């Protein structure tokens, strides 16, 4: 369906997937998250930010059908392939990767439920609490959580305003996070 809809070769679809995934990763790697908002610049901290941005992308395409639904599925598959690859680069053995992947997938889907509920209820406090619980679980008080919650709300609004046609064509834009 994805190929048929666009009438392009398989490699063109791959280019769209790579472009979208690169834009999601770039948004998750914004320096301000790590330098000013105290997101841990660790493999787990980077996983949290990539998961958050993947959630925002998936949240935007939720309920869509046709090419948008296919793009959403392809991107989530790409995300988990990237996580698998990252685990292997960190030196996790072939035997250990499936166990870690299962744990990370469970973490991802748990977070998407909490973030989705908070966005649906327009509950910025609950969103901030969920972000603090997930991004900085051992930090206790995390004063920057409201900044990240505001960013997530703005990103959700900005993504909602983007036409599905431009997203499935390979363009998605996240807001620029700014220091407080």
TrEMBL record:
It comes from the Bacteria. Coiled coil: none annotated. Residues 36-174 form the Ubiquinol-cytochrome c chaperone domain. It holds the Pfam family Ubiq_cyt_C_chap. Belongs to the UPF0174 family. This is Ubiquinol-cytochrome C chaperone family protein. The lineage of its organism: Bacteria, Pseudomonadati, Pseudomonadota, Alphaproteobacteria, Hyphomicrobiales.
